[in-house]
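If you are new to this repository, start here. Below is one unmodified record pulled from the training split, so you can see the exact layout before writing a loader.
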Amino acid sequence: MAGLTGAEQGFLLLTSRLGNPDRKTLSVAQLRTLASRVRILDRDPEDRDLEVRDLVAAGYGNAAAEHILRLLEETELLEYYVNKGLRAGCVPITRASSQYPAAVRKRLGLDAPGCLWARGDLSLLDTPTIALVGSRDLREPNRAFAEEVGRQAALQGITLVSGNARGADKTAQNACLAMGGRVISVVADPLIQHRVRENVLYLSEDGYEEEFSAQRALSRNRVIHALGSIALVAQATLQSGGTWDGTSRNLRFGWSGVCCFDDGSDAALVLEQMGARKILREDLSDLPALAITDINLFDQ
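And here is the target side for that same chain:
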């Protein structure tokens, strides 16, 4: 089907809504449990399709077993949804796909998206990256910081990862592209509406037609942080908003290093106390150096 492997098809059937918001899918953790249980089943012959009795033998109740099999049977829906996306230039990258970003899988673990839909230049997934996050309403020094991040990413040959939102995201992205740089934009609105541009890759969780929601905006932040070798925070609001939520979660779970613009705000101070490094615009002249993890003397 459209060049997808059997594993990729199975992954989409079990974990993707395939354009149907009412489709009750499995989480990545539930899928892993299913795979481990099926692996040790004694089926005769081994290549026959799964049946309810197999899943019951693996520890599932009848209702759960029937639900899993119903998901796997919706191959016509899968073919329709995938082919419709491909015609629009939207490509599914599941956790079973070779192109799935290794950093996202490793850093987010079972919280990594089951599928990232992509539109644009897929080669950007194999380039060095930094992430930029920040508020929508920027103060002037913070706007200048976000712009300089974009400029320096382009000048230093590093792909900028951001979220395409008003404010810090677009300021940095536009500055990067204006200098001939590369951008990976993890969007929270319909992927299909974003025009394909040179040096740009758009990514979206779950599907390619999903409308914007606050929950989608919050959820994609973890992907932005995990995709970058380091996350740069242009501006945050203390204990409020998506930038604070995503950055504080990054610092709590250690997805990547965090550097925060030293704007004198309470938010920057608290982020520093949580483990972020405060930096100034002049520190952006060597972005790879910012991504080097400090050596812990107790680990030597």
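Two things worth knowing about this chain: The beta strands are 91-94, 115-120, 129-133, 159-162, 183-186, 200-205, 230-233, 257-261, 277-279. The chain has two domains: 6-87, 122-293.
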